[in-house]
C-alpha cells in the first residue's frame, strides 16, 4: 500500500501530461525565489553583526573591563594588574586611560576619542592586531610624541606619516575653571578597523602621555581584559576575578553589558528583516494551495475512477498532501542552495556587480562626453564593513527546510476537501 501511495504521489508530482505539472513547478519556483532573500538576510546579517561585534570587543571594549570606583595610586594599579595576571582564564591585562579631545591640523579640526595605551599592546595582542590594519607607517607608540590616527581622521585632517597634529585637551580645577592644553604629536601610523565609525573616532597615544594630558572629569582609566572565548558564559570567570581582587573598589563589566544597547539594536533590526522575508516565503507557500485546487480539478476524472475502484478519500487526500510536501521540499532545496551560495560569495558578487556597472557608466560618459561623477559603490563603507566572514549554520538551514515542507503540506489541506465531494457516478456520467 505504501509503495502504491509513493508511486501515485510521484506520478502526480511529475504529471503524465505537461499541463498537470505546470502549477506545481510554478509553486516550486515561487518558493525557491522567496527563499533566496530569506537565507541571504539570515547569514548576511549574522555575519555583519558578528564582524562589527568582533571589532568592538577585540579593539575597543575588550572582553571584560574593570573600572575603579575611587582614585587609585600607581601602586594600586600595579598590584591589581599583578592579581589579574595570575587569575586563571585571563589571557591579557592592559591598562587604558582615555578621554575626549579635538584634533587640529591647518584649518581642519575634528573631535576624537583619545586612547592612551601601552606601546606593546599591538605586538602582544594578536586579535587586536588582526582587526587593526596598519595602512601607513607603524603602530609605534615608543615615544610620548607619537600618535596613531584612524583612516577617516587622517583623511579629514589631510595628514600623512611624519605630519604634525595638535590635540586640544583640558583640565578642570577644583574651582570649576577649565584650563585648555594643546599638545603636539607626530603621526607615525594610520590604521583601519574596516568599520568607518571607529576609524573616524579613535586616536592612540602612549599611556604615559595620556595620563599627563587627559586630566579632565571626563577622562578615566580602566583595565581591559581578554579571555579564551568571549562568547562563552563569562559568569564563572567574573566570580573568579571578584575573588582574586578581594575588594569592592572595582566595577566589573562584561562586553555584553557594555554593548547591550548596540546589540539590542542589531538583533531587533535583524529580526524585523527576517520577519519580512518570512512573510514573503509564507505567501509563496500559500500558492501551493491554489496549485492543489487546479491539480484536483484536472484529475477529477482519475479521482472518480479510483474511488469507484474502492480507494478511500483519506488515501487519495494523503497523496495530494505528499505532493504538496514534495513541492515545498523541492522549492526549499533550490532556494536554500542558491541563497547559501550567494551568501558565501556575497563580497565577490558585489565587487563584480560594481565593476560591471561602473564600466558601463564610464563607457556611457565617454560616448556622450559627460564628466564622470566618480565610481559608484553598492555598499557604502560608512554603514557596512569592508569585509566580513559568513558562517553557514546547517541547523538553521535544516529548520527552514522542515518548516517549509510542513507548511506546504498544511497549505494543501483546504483544496483536498474537494476530493471527498467528488462522486464517482457523476464522473462516469460526464465522461
Would you kindly provide a written description of the structure presented here, covering whatever features stand out?
This protein is of the alpha+beta class and 431 residues long. The chain is built from 17 helices and 10 strands. The chain is 56% helix and 19% strand. It has a 6-stranded mixed barrel. Helix 11 packs across helix 13 and helix 13 (313-344) runs antiparallel to helix 15. The mean pLDDT is 85.
Largest sheet features: 6 strands, mixed, barrel
Q: Radius of gyration, rounded?
A: 32 Å
Q: What's the β-strand tally?
A: 10
**Structural class from helices and strands?**
alpha+beta
β-strand amount: 15-25%
Give the number of helices: 17
C-alpha geometry: elongated
How far is it from the N-terminal to the C-terminal residue, by CA? 28 Å
What is the helical fraction, as a range of percent?
55-70%
Amino acid at each position: 500500500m505504501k509503495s502504491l501511495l509513493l508511486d501515485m504521489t510521484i506520478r502526480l508530482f511529475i504529471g503524465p501530461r505537461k499541463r498537470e505539472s505546470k502549477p506545481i513547478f510554478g509553486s516550486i519556483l515561487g518558493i525557491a525565489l522567496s527563499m533566496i532573500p530569506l537565507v541571504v538576510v539570515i547569514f548576511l546579517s549574522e555575519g555583519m553583526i558578528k564582524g562589527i561585534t568582533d571589532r568592538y570587543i577585540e579593539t575597543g571594549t575588550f572582553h571584560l573591563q574593570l573600572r575603579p570606583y575611587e582614585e587609585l595610586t600607581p601602586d594600586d594599579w600595579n598590584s591589581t594588574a599583578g592579581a589579574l595576571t595570575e587569575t586563571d582564564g585571563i589571557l591579557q591585562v592592559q591598562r587604558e586611560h582615555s578621554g575626549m579631545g579635538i584634533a587640529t591640523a591647518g584649518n581642519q579640526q575634528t573631535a576624537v576619542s583619545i586612547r592612551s595605551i601601552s606601546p606593546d599592546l599591538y605586538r602582544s595582542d594578536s586579535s587586536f592586531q588582526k582587526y587593526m590594519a596598519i595602512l601607513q607607517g607603524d603602530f609605534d607608540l615608543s615615544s610620548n610624541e607619537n600618535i596613531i590616527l584612524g583612516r577617516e581622521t587622517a583623511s579629514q585632517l589631510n595628514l600623512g606619516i611624519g605630519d604634525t597634529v595638535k590635540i586640544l585637551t583640558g583640565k578642570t580645577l577644583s574651582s570649576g575653571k577649565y584650563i585648555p592644553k594643546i599638545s603636539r604629536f607626530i603621526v607615525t601610523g594610520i590604521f583601519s578597523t574596516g568599520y568607518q565609525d571607529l576609524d573616524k573616532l579613535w586616536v592612540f597615544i602612549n599611556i604615559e602621555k595620556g595620563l599627563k594630558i587627559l586630566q579632565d572629569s571626563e577622562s578615566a582609566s580602566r583595565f581591559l581584559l581578554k579571555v579564551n572565548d568571549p562568547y562563552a558564559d563569562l559568569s564563572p570567570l567574573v566570580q573568579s576575578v571578584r575573588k582574586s581582587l578581594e575588594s569592592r573598589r572595582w566595577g566589573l563589566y562584561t562586553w555584553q553589558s557594555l554593548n547591550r544597547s548596540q546589540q539590542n539594536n542589531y538583533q531587533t533590526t535583524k529580526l524585523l528583516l527576517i520577519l519580512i522575508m518570512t512573510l514573503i516565503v509564507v505567501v509563496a507557500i500559500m500558492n501551493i494551495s491554489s496549485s492543489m485546487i487546479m491539480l484536483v480539478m484536472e484529475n477529477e476524472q482519475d479521482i472518480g475512477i479510483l474511488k469507484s475502484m474502492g480507494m478511500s478519500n483519506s488515501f487519495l487526500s494523503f497523496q495530494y498532501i505528499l505532493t504538496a510536501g514534495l513541492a515545498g521540499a523541492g522549492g526549499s532545496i533550490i532556494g536554500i542552495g542558491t541563497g547559501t551560495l550567494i551568501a558565501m560569495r556575497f563580497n565577490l558578487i558585489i565587487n563584480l556587480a560594481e565593476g560591471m556597472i561602473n564600466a558601463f557608466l564610464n563607457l556611457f560618459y565617454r560616448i556622450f562626453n559627460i564628466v564622470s561623477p566618480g565610481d559608484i559603490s553598492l555598499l557604502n563603507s560608512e554603514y557596512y564593513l569592508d569585509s566580513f566572514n559568513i558562517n553557514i549554520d546547517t541547523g538553521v538551514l535544516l529548520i527552514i527546510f522542515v518548516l517549509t515542507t510542513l507548511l506546504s503540506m498544511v497549505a494543501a489541506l483546504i483544496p483536498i476537501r474537494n476530493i471527498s465531494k467528488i462522486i464517482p457516478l457523476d464522473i462516469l456520467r460526464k465522461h
